[in-house]
Amino acid sequence: MSRRLLGAALAAVLATGLTGCGSGDSSTASDNTLEIWIRQPPDSDSAKTAQKLADAFTKASGVQTKVVAIFDDFETKLNQQAAQKQLPDIVINDTAQLGAMQSQGWLQEVDKAGLAGGDQLSELAWKAATGSDGKVYAAPFSGQSFALIVRKDWREKVKLDPPETWEDLTALAKAFTEQDPDGNGSADTAGFVIPAGTKRGYASWYASSLIYANGGDFLKANGPGKYVATANDPKTVEAVKYLQDQFCTNKTVNPGAVSNDTTVTHEVFEKGQGGIYLVGPYVLARFVDSIGTDKIEVLPVPKGPSGGPGTLGEGENVYLMAGTSMQDAQKKFAEFAISPEGQRIGMNKDANGAIVRLPVNTQVDMAAERQDPRWKVFQESYANAVYAPPVPNWAPIRQDSADSINAVWADCGADVKTVMDELNAKLTQELQSQNAS
Description:
The protein is an alpha/beta fold. It folds into two domains: 3-143 and 313-387, D-Maltodextrin-Binding Protein, domain 2; 147-311 and 392-433, D-Maltodextrin-Binding Protein, domain 2 (3-Layer(aba) Sandwich). It is built from 17 helices and 13 strands. Strands 1, 2, 3, 4, 11, 12 and 13 form a seven-stranded mixed sheet that branches. It has a four-stranded mixed sheet with strand order 6-9-5-10. A two-stranded antiparallel ribbon has the order 7-8. The chain is globular and about 65 Å long. The two termini are 20 Å apart. GO terms for molecular function: maltose binding. Residues 1-20 form the signal peptide. InterPro entries: SBP. This is Multiple sugar transport system substrate-binding protein.
């Protein structure tokens, strides 16, 4: 049995007998305490915002809570809790994790019509809470699209307008690389800063926004719960080739990018080593503080030559975990989290530490909560955001894609079409192994 299939089989075994494995059987929480896990670094500003949300819920409902913030190996630790029959009651986690968590039997189905305030949420957000079987397995909590955070002071120095096409974007990146935009007399700046490493699939994660902006995709729906691989579609290949040209022909990407994750790339941008960062809104407040509000701007991702517009859509859901003795409290927390009050707390205004990046409750006026108008670019881009499909396990698909895309960026002699053909075959095999082909 392959390692991947063995892991799936083990997960299925662990998922059986989950009754009573929530807070009612947890050694870390008492019977009347709702245990909430969130994928954030402990003691971070985001973890503190999550605690504010939990405290406000307790004040409103009387239900005691315990917030557990974990960043590293979050999914591994969830698996360990499942093995011990001690799943938390609530998990706030990425929308892309829905398929994997649902296929392991960890999630309760959510009655969309029976969730107070559910009718106020955007349909796009509900789509990201829906499994491949058409059933809803979470309450939407936060949305996210992607845009370009650009050094405005550099762009004005090189006398170029905001890019409206990919050709414009290349021209801006070349100017940032070649025209000494920071004025220090050294050739030490790049156009793009890119988290192009393979850890957690970052190369694929980054490339996906340009793939979607060009009308491409990794998979295409092919019936209920079924998909076909499209990694070698000409529009997808064109987007990956565009980025390979930035690494290899134009040489407009920060050195070492093929090994970097987002943690390093954030710092590269802050140190002024590059001027164009395609990223989500969660770092905007950080960059305002570290770089200066007058030095940065947010611009939409230009439409690709063969498609668009579109960027990666992400966010977080509130997952109601199976096996708990606190189903009523779970539902109350989900209803509070999606309410205008819960959304506002999670947004944290313009300060760092937002756990609601874009509100999914249509009754929340983001402009009234956040004074920084640059958030509007992300919100407008969200209308065309593309979420990862709810396959049983998205992680290996993103990882396989990242390995292939990283390879053509790291090896300038690699033929993009050939590598993407090989990736398409891998994804087809992966879909078959997940019974999603």
